[in-house]
Amino acid sequence: MLKILGKSSSINVRKVLWTCAELNLPFEREDWGSGFRPTSDPGFLALNPNAMVPVLQDGGFVLWESNSIIRYLAGQYGGQGLYPAEPKRRARVDQWMDWQATDLNRSWSYAFMALARQSASHRDTVAIEASCQAWGQFMGILDQRLSATGAYVAGDAFTLADIPVGLSVNRWFETPFDKPMLPAVAAYYDRLAGREGYRLYGRNGTA
């Protein structure tokens, strides 16, 4: 059975849990990270020297980095519908996964830590405002894309890309600040809620 190391409130762990739900994969999960067993533990560092969650153990195979993990799971366990083999269709999925991990994540980092997590080290009002503005700009790009597809980020079908992007959309709605109206993003949020994996690990009140 698959073993997933990481606390279930982590957005990156939730990517893996949601992917397992989409693929109907049973798993065991152990709580690691802030508030649980420390990732500085030598046993954990032997699995991931970066001291970050999640870590996947599939028998003797160990993998870290959440997007790499979910790509592996789709490839290993019959997830061609989520992660197509055809190069152009796969590249479109990868494009939006990488965009979420880089451009979108960087934009909301400071604002999320300040407004949702109430971090004492994120109290610079200028930095908060700049982060909110950047976040809104990137969400506007997503809104345009979803308006064009009328469905999901990579096209008309749900794919692996919708898992990290969907979790970021949950974080957008769960973080308290004045947001622009993004009707395609709001419709996408409701569309994802029809999926059991999203109800369990995405739109579950956890940002």
TrEMBL record:
Question: Which GO terms fall under molecular function for this chain's record?
Answer: transferase activity
Domain GST N-terminal positions: 1-81
Domain GST C-terminal spans what residues? 86-207
- What SUPFAM superfamilies does this protein map onto? GST C-terminal domain-like, Thioredoxin-like
In which domain of life is the source organism classified?
Bacteria
Q: Which UniProt keywords apply?
A: Transferase
Family, according to the entry, reads as follows: Belongs to the GST superfamily.
Q: Which PANTHER family match?
A: DISULFIDE-BOND OXIDOREDUCTASE YFCG, GLUTATHIONE S-TRANSFERASE-RELATED
Q: What is this protein called?
A: Glutathione S-transferase domain-containing protein
Organism this protein belongs to:
Achromobacter arsenitoxydans SY8
